[in-house]
Amino acid sequence: MAENSCVGAFVRIRPLNAREQAACCGVCIETRGDKELVVGGKHSYTFDRVFSPECSQTEVYKEVVEPLVESFFKGINVAVLAYGQTGAGKTYSMGTAATETAASQGILPRALRQIFERIGAESSAAHKHHPQPQQQFAVHVSFLEIYMEEMIDLLAAGKTGHVQVREDAEGGTVVVGAHVVPVADAAAVLACLHEGARARRTAGTLMNSQSSRSHSVFTVTLAQAQAGLRSQMHFVDLAGSE
Predict the structure, then answer these.
(1) Helix H or strand E segment including 37
(2) Handedness of CA 231, 233, 201, 145 (dihedral sign)
(3) What are the two backbone dihedrals, phi and then psi, of residue 199, each rounded to the nearest 5 degrees?
(4) Cα atoms in the 13 Å half-sphere on the side-chain side of 171
(5) How far apart are alpha carbons 127 and 123 in whole angstroms?
(6) Do residues 189 and 220 make contact, with C-beta atoms less than 8 angstroms apart?
(7) What pLDDT digit, counting tens, does each position of 141-162 carry?
(8) How far is it, in rounded angstroms, from Cα 185 to Cα 113?
(9) Backbone angles phi, psi at 236, to 5 degrees
(10) CB within 8 A of 199, min separation 6: which ones?
């Protein structure tokens, strides 16, 4: 991310999949350094960082999201959006699928681990000075789906779960009717993530047999009592751009 910038744009190039390799498809994208990519040999685009197909999930997380978690603890609202064509690897990179393994963990599970490790460390430090300290941190999550211009609560536990977006008295945007679930550790958050991921709309396409047909927004809300701070971190997995 550029210095003093509030917005960063990153590109991750996925490797050829098995079907493309079997069809002897070629690669039409090349990189120049770690910030420029060239499409078709003539169209050049510059980003904050270009990740090659060889880059790992860990490398992507440390570069893109790890600094944002630090801002999150400073009371700053943060959003991470994954955008691209069907089959480009958005859900894989974001980590909002319910079937991933520890080795392939994406951005969201890694961010949750970092958040609760930070909470644990600060809570332990506070406990050393005050044997019975007040609760310093409260974490809540919500999981919404936007499908066919309708917003649906993925944590509604079998109910219809429809919610509404309204404007508040100060001109801001609020979501009314969504379940906000209190969580005590990363495992509880992942349980909510997996519950909602199973309810998402998917359909087969030529590029992906389990393509997400909707946008999803997973929100983590952090309240810090002693610091008087409240912030939200949104993980947005968009449907295929086509």
Answers:
(1) strand 36-39
(2) positive
(3) -90, -5
(4) 0
(5) 6
(6) yes
(7) 999 988 877 888 999 866 655 6
(8) 9
(9) -110, 115
(10) 145, 154
Report the distance separating Cα 40 and Cα 19, nearest Å: 21
Give the C-alpha separation, 176 to 153, whole Å. Answer: 10
175-213 pLDDT, tens digit each: 888 889 999 999 999 899 888 888 776 544 444 444 456
178 backbone φψ class: left, alpha, beta (φ>0; ψ -120 to 50): beta
Side-chain-side CA neighbours of 151 within 13 Å: the count stands at: 15
Distance (Å, rounded) from C-alpha 89 to C-alpha 108? 14
Cα 179 from Cα 225, distance rounded (Å): 22
Is residue 179 within 8 Å of 155, Cβ to Cβ? yes
Closest CA to 49 of 13, 101, 4: 13
Residue entry with tokens 């490398």? 59
**Which spans in the chain are helix H?**
18-22, 57-64, 66-73, 90-94, 107-129, 186-199
* Length of the chain counted residue by residue: 242
Give the end-to-end CA distance of the chain in Å, rounded to a whole number: 27
Of the listed ranges 26-30, 34-38, 64-68, the least confidently predicted one is 26-30
Q: What is the distance between the alpha carbons of residues 76 and 67, in angstroms, rounded to a whole number?
A: 12
Asked if residues 78 and 111 have their Cβ atoms less than 8 Å apart, the reply is: no
The Cα 48–Cα 9 span in angstroms is 6
C-beta separation of 150 from 163 below 8 A: no
Residue tagged 């998402």 (tokens): 200
